[in-house]
Amino acid sequence: MTLQEIADFIGIDCQEKKEITGLNTLLDSNENQLTFLENKKYLSDLKNTKAAAVLVTEENSKEVPSSSIALICDEPYLMLAKISKLFAPNVIEMDGEKPLIGGGTKVMPNVYIGKNSVIGSDCTIMAGAFIGDNVTIGNNTIIYPNVTVYRDCSIGNDCIIHAGTVIGSDGFGFANTKDGKYIKIYQNGNVTIGNDIEIGANSTIDRAVFNSTIIEDGVRIDNLVHIGHNCKISRGSILVAQVGLSGSTTLHPYVVMGGQSATAGHLEIAPFTTIAARSGVTKTIHEPKKQWAGFPLFEHKQWLKLQGKISNLLK
């Protein structure tokens, strides 16, 4: 779409006919993409953006680089939500190539495989699985019954996806109007899953708003785990049952999270960190190779001392 068409859609005056191919973050945008700034803490990112245009308030419009066009509006985040619908892919593709299935792959009855999808060799796809359009699955991967893989996602080699897991469902993204109405932010990214990964039953991994939710090689995910949009789970990490990660959380290599632990969004956890069961991570953890517990979060040894003191108070 042209920038003028997009601006007309949200009621902004812009005569620029530059073609816009998609939406992206401030730092990841290229010269053919549209981005936005809502929060002032990202002003430094705005100054370095390469985006063709930026949805921005008048107050912050002076910080838009000369290479970008400022689309001035009162509520950039809300405008982004409305525009995201314009770039959302079809729910189901009616046109396209039949799926390609490699040698030695076994596909049980009652499996759906979408257009343009590719499944490698020596895989097993069990009954009730749904594999959407433009999905790629590597070699020697097992998909158990009733697994759902939404369109545009990818799964690597030597993976095991247990029953009922959903990969690529929409992340939880909404913008509020002034009267409280929720406007959906269409999740136009995907999920990419590496090699040698096992995902337990009934877990959910949300697709990204832009770009990808990423699960790197060697990760182990237990049953009933939820991973929000745009998270990155680095190699060798372990997530135990009922872990919940809010959007844009990054786990660096070999992080272990115990059962029912959780994170707030937009934070990072250092390599070789252990988070004890039922702990809540609300801030970035910078120092690697430490153990943490509780809510609010303490180093594990301190948390044990605190529990001991509390127990003594009850005697």
UniProtKB/TrEMBL annotation:
GO terms for molecular function: N-acyltransferase activity; UDP-3-O-[(3R)-3-hydroxyacyl]-glucosamine N-acyltransferase activity. Pfam families: Hexapep, Hexapep_2, LpxD. GO terms for cellular component: membrane. Its EC number is 2.3.1.191. Keywords: Acyltransferase, Lipid A biosynthesis, Lipid biosynthesis, Lipid metabolism, Repeat, Transferase. Homotrimer. Residues 19-86 form the UDP-3-O-[3-hydroxymyristoyl] glucosamine N-acyltransferase non-repeat region domain. The active site is at 229 (proton acceptor). Coiled coil: none annotated. This is UDP-3-O-acylglucosamine N-acyltransferase. InterPro entries: Hexapep (IPR001451), LpxD (IPR007691), Trimer_LpxA-like_sf (IPR011004), UDP_GlcNAc_AcTrfase_non-rep (IPR020573). NCBIfam families: lipid_A_lpxD, PRK00892.1. It comes from Arcobacter defluvii.
